[in-house]
Amino acid sequence: MDYQTFPDANVLRKAFVGKPLFELPTPAFIVDRAIVKRNCDAMLKVVANSGQKVRWRAVVKTHKTVEVTRMQLGGHGSVVVSTLAEAWWLLRSEAGLNIDDVLYALPPVPSRLPELDALSTKIPHFRLMLDSEQLLPHLSAYAQKSGRTTSWDIFLKLDCGSNRAGLGAATSEFRRLVEVLRGSGDVVTVVGVYAHAGQSYDGRSSEEAREYLRAEVEEVNAAANIVHEILPSSCRAEELILSVGATPTAHAFQLTSDKPGYFLQELGIGPENVRGVLELHAGNYPFHDLQQLATGLITPHNLAVTVLADVASVYEARDEVLINAGSLALGREPGLQEWGYGKVVGRRWVVGRMSQEHGILVRFQPNESLSSISRRMSQGERRQSLSEMGLGEEEVQRYMLHVGDRVRIVPQHACISAAGYGWYYVVDGGVGGGEEVVDVWVPCKGW
Fold it and tell me: Potential cystine with 351: which of 64, 231, 274, 341 (Cβ 3.0-4.6 Å)?
């Protein structure tokens, strides 16, 4: 069965490469290749300079493309996929990627076991995530039905406090799971433990990011101690993979690895006490977005993606502008309220509210939340006019928008925004001032 049928990138390149952005149909997802490359190179340098034997595993769910995966890997061969479609897409021979280790990020469901089994024959290492003993009977039943004779390599999924998935290493549930696994060697083999501090996106400083990273490392190490205690013969300490990371904590890793060899010491953790091979994973960083900007760990120069949209109407009486990019084009994701659901580049407007295909721009004023804007508008309060605000001509122009104008919007969450597009228009800051399409990238779709 062919699981992948997508637009032909060569046909798209023929149609769009060389065109200026003002000729593109909108809404359009714009990616600056030079910034993506710079972001990826910086992360690879972090791993190379860590001074420890740190593995690297690229998370590909943000972009889902061969091109960005290649930049993320930089010669490494391990990835995390969030959908099986991503795995099929990247493992095609024509992709030309030397991937030898794939970790599926969700605990598998029984209905996908045949496809997971098929994928596991494509590469040397295909790993599953596990956080419930209830999956084990399904794995055993599938093996009996299909004739599968090899055990599944698994990572134990840990919960670092986000309450999204996984078990806390200190919980009785985690210890019980490991104890149950002691008698399941013919079905699963524990090869690693995995932590993702998703709540690190709420941090607003490098100090907070460092503490989230410390919590990740301590969590995987605590879990590793339990694995080695209960399953001493299943894997040696030097082989168990301790995987940590989220884009903010990966940036914190960078902050603590400026001096080679001092990463763990600077976190106050003795390297001799680490019970496995440390691995770093991250995924949003090639693109970045407003959520990452709000952490204080990056600058606007790291923002690689924007959504291009057209002004469809202007409502002077209520001081709002309609654009043809709504929740499907931008993603309805929270972040700093003063930036709305997206911030217009170079103009003082933010996306204040949305429906499926409609986006409403409201004027941006620092420290004013969307809730206060909505309350004021609903009560009929009038904003100051531009002249009353005492703005100079240049500032006035940053506010003014008219039907037919085009705006570029930085989304709150690039992962969600990118998912709405069948292809990305690629620009390069060093070519045509970043205003000309130099390539088209086709992401995979589906689950």
Answer: 341
Distance CA 296, CA 140 (A): 47
Supply the angle between the helices 172-181 and 206-230 in degrees, to the nearest 10: 40
Sign of CA dihedral 332, 216, 237, 130: negative
Answer yes or no: are the C-beta atoms of 425 and 16 closer than 8 Å: yes
pLDDT at 174 > cutoff 70: yes
- The secondary structure element, H or E, covering residue 215 is helix 206-230
Backbone phi and psi for residue 137, each to the nearest 5 degrees, phi listed first: -60, -35
pTM reported for the whole predicted model:
0.92
Looking at the DSSP bridge assignments, the partners of residue 104 are: 81
Residue 279 · residue 224 · CB < 8 Å: no
**Which of 241, 226, 235, 140 is CA-nearest to residue 177?**
226
- Summary mean pLDDT of the chain: 89
Q: Which of 30-44, 111-125, 361-375, 416-430 has the lowest mean pLDDT?
A: 361-375
Nearest CA among 344, 356, 336 for reference residue 309 = 344
- CA within 13 Å, CB half, 148: 23
Give yes or no for a cis peptide into 27 (omega within 30° of 0).
yes
- Which among 275, 53, 56, 284 has a CA at the least distance from the CA of 169? 275
Between CA 87 and CA 79 the distance in angstroms is 9
Q: Look up residue 317 and give its two tokens.
A: 């009486």
* Continuous segment of H or E residues that includes residue 425: strand 424-427
